[in-house]
Amino acid sequence: MYGNPDQVTAGKSQPGHSASPGEAKRGAGRYAPSPSGELHVGNLRTALLAWALARHDGLEFRLRIEDLDERSRAAYEAVQLRDLELLGIDWDGEIIRQSRRLDIYTGILDGLRRRGLLYECYCTRRDLAQVASAPHRPPGSYPGTCRNLTAEERAVRLAKLEHRGPALRLKTDTPAISLHDRFCGDYTGAVDDLVLCRGDGVFSYNFTAIVDDALMGITQIVRGDDLLPSTPRQIYLQRILGYGQPEYAHVPLVLNSRGVRLAKRDGAVTLGRLRDLGVGVPDLLEKMSVSLGFPPVGSAEEFLSVFSPEQAVLRPWMFSADMFL
User: Fold this and answer.
1) Sign of the Cα pseudo-torsion (181, 69, 115, 157, in order)
2) Which of 93, 95, 188, 210 is least surrounded by CB atoms within 10 angstroms?
């Protein structure tokens, strides 16, 4: 390990659980929202599943706030925590905030640099967009454009950057990694030279999530299946850093009435907006439970009592506030 996680007191340690701050003694699941807005129904459904699976398996459940994005706001965090509690989701130990862990990330990045595993990437967003649309490459896969530049070529590319520095990418030597996902089964995905630190100096999700999960003792990760393709890259980084591999369980997304991934712009899809329409938390939990193939319930504890991961019906759920009318 590269140090100990910080202990940031926020909110409260939930009653009835005895986790020591900053560590999990018997393995743990987690939920890790970014406070850049209110949680919508898709976020809340994933949080409910992550919590239920951890509790079902006898694991602790931890909460991490991924607040490195410039759009993060304390007010959004407060609303997110309120909504999780209203839903009936509790957690163990103290809340971890990424913004308080920059020294940890910097130290680990410096260690990778000393091992010769990083290189500067000068590609612009336009460059990366062209790469993403290139045929015969895995979606989003980076071809190593800046990996073997000469000193002169690096200087020329650096001079063309505006208002930022180069990103830092990890040198990888494995084209693909296979894994077994608890819900999705066997999966093989591409591994490329992933960004660990952006050109504006912000650490990447793929980097900080892996570090935090390891240092927090996370052994089970439940999240949307849109993140499944990035999992082989993250497993590669885990191996490079000497971390164990957690169990992954990716779940289908919640969609809007057009069959597109649900977003806050779809209207009444947050607890606050639904409450304005007279829709209560028990009403929403009932719909969530039924969408997963379980009987109607009125509370998170009731959902946990009927929850069985082997019997869950996991498929995209089309959601609209009209279903409550």
Assistant:
1) positive
2) 188
pTM of the model: 0.88
What residues are paired with 255 via a beta bridge? Answer: 261, 318
DSSP 8-state assignment for residue 245: P
Rounded CA-CA distance 178/173 in Å is 15
Q: For residue 85, which amino acid is it? A: E
Query: What are 34-85's pLDDT values in tens digits?
Result: 999 999 999 999 999 999 999 999 999 999 999 999 999 999 999 999 999 9
Contact 194, 169 (CB under 8 A): yes
Burial 262-291 (b: 16+ CB within 10 A, else e): beeebbbbbbebbeeeebebebbbbbbbeb
Count of beta carbons in the 10 Å neighbourhood of residue 311: 10
Instruction: Report the SS3 class of residue 267.
Output: coil
| pLDDT for residue 316 | 95
Distance between CA 319 and CA 259 in Å, rounded? 9
Read off the pLDDT of residues 110-155 as tens digits, 9 standing for 90 and up.
Answer: 999 999 999 999 998 787 877 655 555 566 688 899 999 999 999 9
CA-nearest of 223, 179, 243 to 53 is: 223
Beta strands 167-170; 118-121: pairing state: antiparallel
Residues 306, 286: Cα–Cα separation, whole Å:
12
